[in-house]
Design brief:
The structure is a homotrimer of 158-residue chains.
Chain A (H helix, E strand, L loop, with lengths): L4 E17 L4 H12 L4 E18 L13 E6 L3 E13 L2 E14 L2 E9 L4 E14 L5 E4 L4 E4 L2
Antiparallel strand pairs in A: 1-7, 2-3, 2-4, 2-6, 2-7, 4-5, 5-6, 8-9
Chain lengths: 158, 158, 158
């Protein structure tokens, strides 16, 4: 197999530490933050906190041909306390606007057992009490997504 | 919905790479480390390793009124090998001392299946063999928690 | 209990943002990347993406005496879509070559439920569509693993 990757290097920039307040939409607040702060390239270093409800997107099937569409995806909602165990992802530009792309891992309690779910972060993940997110801006690197012929979606470094 | 957040920006500082030795308490060793090194603001960039036993805190119910107390929490213990899949969190000051706030995701094997648990990192998570934790100090940012009227707990940037 | 750790401090270096293309072996591509780029010390800041198949290593039993060997481990394979929720780990030198040590958390869908698995990243985790990995080089720190008498394996800062 030939491993293939596209790579760009940059440097570290501002580190932004945010406390999201109770009732905020996790993705919505992050999206607002990168717009307010003018972040054009960034990486999520850390995310912890508690949610009162959540909604996650996952891929349930692989298409025979690209692109992946909503027919390949499942959207599931949770209405219970969920700890944010991890938040991974980045901030890139698409068509002139900064966008947050993040995946989360969440834990909950069922009787004497801990359950864990996760997926692509979408709207309707609502902070309960607080969440702390740390984002680092990247300098001297252009993280812009453009249309990629192979996957027929927007991708970095096309 | 109005998304609400409090944000402060700083810069990158020292990066500390630590190997925790077998038998160490994961949180206890990290706590000792930030005290020994005089870290006043930081972010956990990475944590991997193996535990021989673990204890985790999760939120099982949401209070009608803040604060969240131990009545809303479950403490569960595990006595088996558990891989540390992720460690997220930060280091802040409270009442003059540095404190580590971290969440972990852990995996274990049950027959031919992999189970995953997670939660707030508390004491009694004991390293087996080794764990590697990478922490970055943050410069020019004051991460101090103070009493927050809304959540009735200590919070960042009150 | 005496907590014990070995610690070295360094500074931040280049930040490398990579998009791994469809069909790539996740570990293989990262390994190729650190060799091509001459990374001698690094930390994985973020990893998100989608896999079409995966293989993970976990520890199923603790040996009475070190070292941990393959008798203590389980290797499990998955053939389905799996979202990469988190990737943690670092890059170090062993016997003159850079090596990637990473743990991953993965989610999948089963009917109306989300399952989560994870473990030590090994070969045969195959990217579907794309994966985005952000790695930061560390400056002024020598991350070399050498034989450790206590655990009878290669360890950092021996």
């Amino acid at each position: 197999m030939t491993n293939k990757y596209e790579l760009r290097s940059g440097g570290t920039g501002r580190v932004m530490v945010a406390r999201l307040k109770s009732g905020s939409d996790l993705l919505g607040a992050l999206q607002e933050m990168v717009e307010d702060e003018g972040v054009e390239a960034g990486v999520i270093l850390s995310g912890v906190g508690l949610l009162g409800e959540a909604r996650l997107r996952n891929c349930k099937s692989l298409p025979e041909e690209f692109p992946i569409t909503d027919e390949n995806r499942t959207y599931l909602s949770f209405s219970r306390p969920l700890e944010v165990l991890s938040m991974s992802g980045n901030v890139y530009m698409a068509e002139g606007s900064p966008l947050v792309h993040a995946h989360v891992t969440l834990s909950y309690v069922e009787g004497d057992e801990i359950g864990v779910v996760g997926g692509h972060l979408i709207e309707e993940c609502i902070v309960f009490g607080f969440a702390e997110v740390i984002l680092m801006e990247l300098d001297n690197i252009k993280m812009e997504k453009r249309f990629d012929e192979e996957t027929r979606t927007l991708q970095l470094f096309v």
